[in-house]
Amino acid sequence: MDSNLNEWLNLVFRWIHVLAGVMWIGHLWFFNFVNAQLAKTYDADSRKKVVPELMPRALYWFRWGAAYTWVTGILLLWVVYWPGLMGSERMSGYASGGIGLVIAVIAFVIYDVLWKGMKNETTGGIVSLVLFAVLVFVFHLFMGGRAMFIYAGGTLGTIMAANVWMRIWPNQRKIIAGVKGTGPAVDPSIPALAALRSKHNTYMSFPLIFFMVSNHFSTVYGSDYAWVLAIAFLIVGFGIATFCFNKSATPIPAKF
Length: 256
Prior knowledge:
By secondary structure, the protein is mostly helical. The chain contains eight helices and no strands.
């Protein structure tokens, strides 16, 4: 590919990737840190007025932000990383990248099956953390540290985007229809599932953002223990998310 064309594609795809990511994650945090608390104050009439107007509008930008973030992420891999900049010493960038993408899709399937049958959130969280540790170690075996962070973040992003389109949005449509009266009243399991997957996405968003910016810092991705650092920063990100969830449930954010 011509170097000038490659540079322009890199610029355009990266710009759209960041814009869409801000749109997506911004709405995700709004749902979980703001709207989730506000919704607890609705009476039946308020809920019937607000939900059919607010949620479709917010979910529009939310789901398409997720879609464009994921698609432009793949395009950036094609333009920037697969040609060789992220390849390991054992295989080309295309080969290691292809394997990374397959693993990311498989990771969502495993995650989805795990959480469909998981009754205890703490146990599920521990199992998920262990599986993610295995994942980054596997990436470490055939990728350099920089690629490992990118594909660890890409795996989280793939799980999150699939959650949006396959679990959150379909269930939110049922909830909105039930509130509007254009569909049957939903079983309590429907909003519970949508809320849980949205909560998971919020937790994953914090380390995801770190993984995406880590490729600018050679001290991090160049370490011999980069895969251990990835796990450490995942845990730190989860800790920050927990702090934000706890803070959002206090009266402090509502003070004028």
